[in-house]
Amino acid sequence: ADSLYVSEYFSQSAQKLSFYSWYGNAKLFHFHVPEDTVLLRWLLQASRGKGPECTSMEITVHFRHGAPPVINPLGTRFPANATVRPSYNISITLSTAVQNTTFVNVTTPAAGDWFIAAHLPQAAGRIEVKGFSTPCPYMFQADMFVLRLTDMPVLEPDVPMPHTVVSPAKPLHVKVFVPKHAARMRFQLSSCVTSEQRACTVRVLLGSITLPQSFQRSLTCTGSTNCSLALESPPWEKWLQIMVESLGTANASVSVEMLASFTVCRPGSTSPFLNFISLNQSQAGARPGAAGSSAAAAGVAPHNVSSQQSSCLQSQPVVREDLDVVSVRYRLLSGPGVPVGSLSPTLLLLNLNSGMDSGGSLVVSLLLNKTSVSLANATVAACVSAASPVLSLNATRNCSTAFSQGYPLSVSTSSAEAMLIVLYPQTDDWFLSLQLLCPQGQGDCASAEGRVTVFAYLTPCFNDCGPYGQCSLLRRHGYLYAGCSCKAGWGGWSCTDDSKAQTVGTQNLATLLLTLSNLMFLPAIAVAVYRFYLVEASVYTYTMFFSTFYHACDQPGVAVMCIMDYDTLQYCDFLGSVVSIWVTILCMARLKKVLKYVLFVLGTLLIAMSLQLDRRGVWNMMGPCLFALLIMVTAWVHHGAKRRHCYPSSWKRWVFYLLPGITLAFIAISVYAFMETNENYYYTHSIWHVLVACSVAFLLPPRDKHKKPWAWPQKLTCRYQICQNDREELYAVT
Hints:
Elements: E1 5-11, E2 15-16, E3 19-20, E4 27-33, E5 37-48, E6 57-65, E7 82-83, E8 88-94, E9 99-107, E10 112-122, E11 138-149, E12 161-165, E13 172-178, E14 182-194, E15 201-206, E16 217-222, E17 227-232, E18 238-246, E19 254-264, E20 267-268, H1 272-284, H2 291-300, H3 305-310, E21 313-316, E22 318-324, E23 327-332, E24 337-341, E25 346-352, E26 361-368, E27 379-386, E28 407-412, E29 417-423, E30 428-437, E31 449-459, E32 469-476, E33 479-486, H4 504-516, H5 521-530, H6 534-553, H7 566-588, H8 593-613, H9 619-643, H10 651-675, H11 681-699
Parallel strand pairs: 3-10, 7-29, 20-21, 21-25
Antiparallel strand pairs: 1-11, 2-11, 4-10, 5-9, 5-11, 6-8, 6-10, 12-19, 13-18, 14-17, 14-19, 15-16, 15-18, 22-23, 23-31, 24-31, 25-30, 26-29, 26-31, 27-28, 27-30, 32-33
Helix pairs in contact: 1-2, 4-6, 4-11, 5-6, 5-11, 6-7, 7-8, 7-9, 10-11
C-alpha cells in the first residue's frame, strides 16, 4: 500500500562553480541515503548570471557511491599501479536559458554515502587581475528525494516465504541479511502462479545499484518451475535488497515463494587469547614491525596445514592505527610477514568504514620472500575487494565477488614485488585475500607455502604529490578529502604526468628572468640618487630587493630559494610595488618637501592597511595611482596658472622624458592586466618588471637647478664663507 512508503527530502546550499584545473576546482556534494530506499531522485539545478560576460557553458556532473568520484577531465596520466574506473557523469548545458533543471533517477540505490562533483570545462590558463573584469557566476545545487519502505519484509534464511506481487506497477521488495563468513548465497523462487491460474513471468533483481559501476544481478523466471541463482562471496553483514516485479498483464497479481540459503565457511586463525598476548607484546616491545615483535608474533601464529584443511580461510588479525586526518596504518599482530598456503586463502581485514576514510588513497604493497616458497614457479595471487573477500583465488577467476569487482595482484619468484593504489576507496570493510597457486603437475601443492610481507596504509595523497605538487586537504561541511595541486607543468592525479612538464633548464631560466629583471631598478635608483631623491631611491631599493627574493621563492620547480617566510616576501613585494608608484607620481607633482613627505608616510600606511585587507585587489594599486595622479594634475594646473603657460613648459621634457615614461607605463599595465597566462608568466611578468623600472627612470623630475647634489660649501682661507642660495624654487622648469 502507499502508506508503507515514506518520502524524504535532503538539500544542500548552492555552490559557485569553477573552471577545472585540479580536483579542488570541483564542487563536492555529500549525501547519505537511508536503508530500505527503493527510489532515489536527484534534482540538479544549474544557473548563470545575466550579464554580457555570461556565455553558453557546459557543466559536467559526476556521481559515485561510497566515495568522491575519481575524475580526469584533463586526460592526464594516473600514477603507476593506480586503479582507475571511469565515473558516471552527465552534462548540463546552459545556452540561451539562464537556468537548467535536470532529474536523475536511481531505483533500489545502495544505502550509505553518495557523492556528486560538478565543475566547468578546463580553465583557460589566463591570469586575471582581480577587479579588472567581472567573471560570470555559474551556480549549481543538488537536492535529493528518497522513497523508502517503512516495513520492508525480511526473508529469513532457509525459511520459504510466500508473497504476492499485486501488479507490474507495484513490485515486491524484500530484504535478507547476509551473515559474516558467508561464502555463497543461493536464491530460489518457486510456485509462481498468477491470479488467473496462468503461467507467470517475473523478474528478480538482487542487490542495489551503485555508481559508477553496478553489479545488480537479474533473474527471469517463467512458468511454475523453480528457478535459482547462486552468488559467490555476497557482502558480509549487510542487508541485501531483492525486488520481484511481474512481467505479465496489468490486472493480474502473481503469487511466488522465495527461499534464501547461505553456505558459511569456518575461518581458521589463532585464538583470541594468543592475539591479545601478541598485541600486548607488540605494544610493550619495539616499534610496530620491528624485528623483535615480528619474531614474537611468529611464535604464536604458526602455519598449520591441518587447520587449512578444516577451514575455508585463514584470518590474520590486523590493528588499525589512526595517525592523522585521512591517514591510517594497518599493522599485523603476527608481523608484516604473512604465511600463505594453497588450500585456503589468507584473509586480512582493512577497516575503512569510519566515514572519513574515503577521501584519501589506499596503498597495498606486497613483497614475496623468495626463499620461503617451497615450489619453484609458484605464484601468490592476491585480491583486494570491498564488502566481501574473494575466497577462491584460482587462475580462472577475475577477482570478482557477488556485487563488485576487486583488484588483482600477484607476486612470484620472478616478480617479487607488487603494489596497488586505490584512489578514494569507498567506505566499507576492505579485504586482502592471498593464496598460493602451484603449477600443474609439480610437487606436493598441499604442503607448499610462501611468506609475503604486507604493507597497507591510507594516505591523503600518494607519495605526498611528489616534488612538483602540493597535497591540499579540502573540506565540504564536515567531510574532509585530499587533492594534489601540480606545478611546473606537471599534471595528473598525483602530479606524475610529465608530458607538459618544464625542464630543469626552463625552470632555471624562469627563475633568472623573474629575479634578474628586477635589476632594471638600478638605473632608476641611480637617477634618483643623482637628483637627490633619497627617499624615493630607498623605496626603489626596497622594491627591487623583495621582488627579487619573492620571485626566487615563488617558483614552482626545483630552482627555489626562500630567505624568509613566503607570505612575508609576497606582502613586502606587493607593498613595495604600490608604494613605488605612489612616491614616483607625488615626486612628479613638485610639492613642498613637508607636504610631500607627509603624503609619503600617510599613503604608505594606508596602502599597507589595504593590502592586508585584500592583497590581490586591483584597487589596492589603482586607488593610490589615481589619487596621486589627481594630486599631480592639481599641482601642475596650479603651477601653470601661476606661470601663465603650460607646465612643464619645456618640449624636450615632454618628448624625451614624460611621453616615453608614460608610454612604458601604459604598456606595462597592458601586459600585466591582459597578456599574462600560466604558460608565459615568467617572461611577461619579467617584461612588466623592466617596463615599470624604465618608466620610473624617465618620469622622475629633474633636480633643482640651484642645488648641486653632494657639493659641500666652499670655505676660504681668510675665514670668509661663500654663501650658497638654498631657497627651494618650486617653479623651476627644465
